[in-house]
Every structure is written in C-alpha cells, then in structure tokens.
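Q: Trace token order:
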Amino acid sequence: MSGIVQTFRNYLSGIYMPRIQPIDIIEILLIASILYFFMAWIQRTRAYNLLRGILIVIIFILIATIFQMSAILWITSRFANVALIALVIIFQPELRKALESLGTRNIFSNFFRFDASTDKNDLISDRTITEIIRSVTEMSEVRTGALIVIEQNILLDEYINTGITIDAQVSSQLMTNIFEHNTPLHDGAVVVRSDRIAAATCYLPLSDNARISKRYGTRHRAGLGLSEISDAFIIIVSEESGRVSIAYQGQLITGITSSSLREQMHLLQKHHLNDHEERKLVLRKGPKKDEKDEQDQAE
C-alpha cells in the first residue's frame, strides 16, 4: 500500500501546476462565454447540421489515429490543406450573417437571439393552432392553394427576407385572405413565427428529390425542400384536389385530416421529444400505404 501511495505522490509531483492569476480567470470566463453563445447561435441555423457532420468526420479521424490506419491518415493529410478553405465556403452564408450582425447596434439581440419567440416549451399557442387548422380546412374545402411554414428552432430569416413583412397575429381570416386567388400576396409561402405571421410571398428552396412523384407541383416541392434543410413544419394545401399535406424532416405526407393535423401541431409543442421520436410520431399519423395509393390514383 505504501508503494502505491509513493507512486501516486511521484506522479503528482511531476505535474506542472501553473499559477493562476485573476486575469486568467477572466480570460477563461470570456472564452467559455463566447463558445457558449456561439454554439447556442449556430444551433439555430442550418449550419448546425453541417457542424454535426464535421464532428462525426473528426471523430472518425481520431479513431483512425488511435488504431494507426495509415491509408485513411494519408488521405486525410492530403485534404488537410484545403479543409480550411472548404469550411469557409460551406459556412459562407452563416459567417456573412454573423459579421453583418456584428455591425448592427442591437448585436446581442440579433447575433445571440433569446426572446419569447424562441421558447422551445411553447413555439405556438393553442389559439394559433386552432386558427391555422380552421384556415387550412376552409381553404381545403374550396381548393385554395396554400403553403404555410411554421418556424421552430432553426431561424428562417433568409426566407422571410424574400417575402413581404406582415408581423400580424395569426387568424384564420387573415390567412385565408392572403392565399385568396388573384391577390397580391397569394403566391409564395407564409412563415409563422411563434404566434405571428412574420411574412408572406416567401420563396422556398425546391427539393431535388428524384423520388417525389411528378404529380406534385412547385408548392409541394418547395415545402419538401425546406423541410430537408430545416426543422420547420410545413402545411400544404393542394389547389387541384384540396388535399392537405405536411412536410417535416424531409418527409412528405399527404391526405392529412384536420384531427391528425391538430395532433401533429400539438406534438411540436412538446420540447421533451427528441428528433427521432418526433419523426416516428409524425409518420405514424400519415395514411397507410394502400390508402395513399388509392388517394394518389383518385387524384
């Protein structure tokens, strides 16, 4: 036992313990704060998924280093020179947005966004859910095409900026009027942030998924495209058939009823569900495969 204690003491005596000054503590707190706010900010952008992918690659490289996988390490060393340039290109939109935020006066409200609209516990209220479902039901009955985007954790500012700012409380009358035929705001998507309509006539990225049926038009492809690159919940009303569809996490589900839509939107309010559980719950409420095929043939 004494030998073990002596070995432990010898080990500790060889550890270099630097003297910590007050300025060192301040520096550590500053670095920790910057990293925390940076991670909190990037988590609310599309770059978060890219960052997770990069972390997986780094872990893979560490495993290759531990087990001395020479071929993988050789390939990695050849790409290391261009890795920094590649990161700048990949994160160019987010870096530009961050630098623009640094030049504004309200730097902390824009760059580190923490307000009531970003509360994970209640992204949208029960009243907003009722108003959206009521408008969707009315538009479905008269076959008025609609594209409604409900923002969640990832901010959709770049798409909101492509439309016309509304900043009004969500109501079924306003929503129906926006998508009415031959009105200035009917073309494009409506983005709902918290309990307010942020903007209308917003342009969304189209999905390049080759597996999507050709019968779906631009409205469905736009909703699916946004769901592939963000965590937004998109509601689509077909102008041809009046059928209601939802796009979420890269999945397009058609033939959604009002009760099913209400249940899906209530699930969005539950912050304790992780992404995998949310996907299973959304897919579970979609029509069965046989029912979906019959609906597609009828359409």
